[in-house]
């Protein structure tokens, strides 16, 4: 009977084109963000739609003692997130044994998680001990774009990993699918930023959150936001809901296929699937709660958002790779040889 690692790992992918592909995508993203922030049309739209030049992020709490705790705890979480994802990226890139499509996708999942965490966590950490918690209008809009871009990329990679469990995907198809994931993420985040730029702000500028997102911004807009919120639900809400259903179906199929496994194989498979499913629920549960409802905000929204903005990028390396025997062996071979 095959092991769980073998069951999750398709055969036959080699090559070392990951670094070139990711460098190209990163350069394209940087150019995209620069064009976004420097576009004369968007600059004109910003000045016409808003008399607010900056926002104040209220953060998770206003209690000074709790803010110090937040600084220490989330700094450790962020550093652990970067370290875990960095180890995975370097190990997969350098190892000759991790050449299957699953690890190709895991490379991009770790990269997206690290970038996603970096768009949110550093400001949360700094604001926890800073007296000035302001963020400029342009920075806020850029954060909206970056958050949705990397979050959507991570979701698309998870779907590709679920698809890869049943269909053997060749190297070139993997590259095409990842490219489509980048394009889809760009379309999604561009739609979000277009909606955000249409919001006029003419009054309060205090965002009751720790990062810029459409839901708290809708609360500050001085206009009827019913249509825009409906578009947010159609865009972000639909992506979260459909992606969660696809992943849920994939786990149901895996559980159904376990009837052909031995008792030991079923035990290992159930252990792996359970941990994977917990991370999926922690990621998509809060997203569905936030993005599939009317334009209302609750105090608990900030706490709920912590699960998918901080928790998921931290847990993904532990769940998807560090529990994988082949990854651990590859890490030992790679890093021990360098010591």
TrEMBL record:
GO annotation, cellular component aspect: plasma membrane
Keyword Membrane included in the entry's annotation: yes
Primary localization: membrane
Gene Ontology MF terms: G protein-coupled receptor activity; olfactory receptor activity
This protein's record includes keyword Transmembrane helix: yes
Domain of life the protein comes from: Eukaryota
Gene3D superfamilies in the record: Rhodopsin 7-helix transmembrane proteins (1.20.1070.10)
CDD domains documented for this protein: 7tmA_OR4A-like
Ranges of residues in domain G-protein coupled receptors family 1 profile: 84-320
Membrane topology: Multi-pass membrane protein
UniProt entry keywords in alphabetical sequence: Cell membrane, G-protein coupled receptor, Membrane, Olfaction, Receptor, Sensory transduction, Transducer, Transmembrane, Transmembrane helix
Transmembrane region(s): 69-90, 102-125, 145-163, 175-197, 226-257, 269-291, 303-322
Compartments in which it is found: Cell membrane; Membrane
Protein role: Putative odorant or sperm cell receptor.
Family as reported in the entry's similarity comment: Belongs to the G-protein coupled receptor 1 family.
Protein's name in the database: Olfactory receptor
